[in-house]
Specification:
about 200 residues; alpha/beta; 2 domains; 6-stranded mixed beta sheet; Thioredoxin-like_sf
Length: about 200
């Protein structure tokens, strides 16, 4: 049997090198496609997302509300440390974000909106049934509500007007402070949820 010439050996080495390069390139390209690039947002991006602390409250129908109610969909949570008898700035802000998303009804329906007042409003219980099925007022006794406020931060100025974006995995993905206007928040929500799909 004849030994391959040096020219043939170089050709075989070149072919093997090309095959190795092609396999490595394909593997790297596939890995890159599976790694999500998170968009730049005006709000505060939390990466990696943090688990939401346990929640033991009631919804506006008086039914128990817990972490399982935050799973399977995107949620916006607004904590309102100082609601009064009239509509608060925090509640108005949550409704404005909901309304800003009306231009994208599919996205608007993907998100559930939760409002938790820090103390009970003296008038009748809040209901958002006329606004959207995805809008819920939460409540609980003082201790239960205080636990949620403490878990999300200081119950005074830090949480006031801050919206918390919770993913379908019941993890905190982003927050939007009082410095973020509602138009920008709606745009950020669109970008974040699109990037996650």
């Amino acid at each position: 049997m004849r030994r391959p010439s040096s020219k043939q050996r170089r050709a075989v080495i070149l072919i093997l090198a090309l095959i190795t390069f092609s396999v490595a390139y394909y593997a790297g390209h596939t890995q890159k496609q599976h790694t999500r690039t998170l968009p730049q947002i005006d709000g505060v991006l939390i990466n990696p997302p943090l688990p939401v602390p346990p929640v033991d409250l009631n919804n506006q129908q008086g039914e128990p509300f817990s972490l399982s109610d935050l799973q399977g969909h995107w949620s916006l949570l607004m904590l309102d440390p100082g609601p009064g008898k009239i509509s608060s700035i925090a509640l108005t802000r949550l409704i404005q974000v909901h309304n800003r998303l009306a231009a994208d009804p599919d996205l608007q329906q993907q998100i559930h909106y939760f409002y938790l007042p820090g103390n009970k409003i003296e008038e009748k219980a809040i209901s958002f049934a006329s606004l959207s099925d995805n809008f819920q007022a939460l409540h609980g006794d003082k201790q239960e509500v205080d636990i949620v406020f403490t878990a999300f931060g200081d119950a005074d100025n830090e949480t006031e007007y801050t919206l918390y974006l919770i993913g379908p995995d019941a993890k905190l993905h982003a927050l939007f402070t009082r410095n973020n206007n509602t138009a920008t928040i709606a745009e950020d929500l669109n970008n974040l949820i699109d990037a996650a799909q």
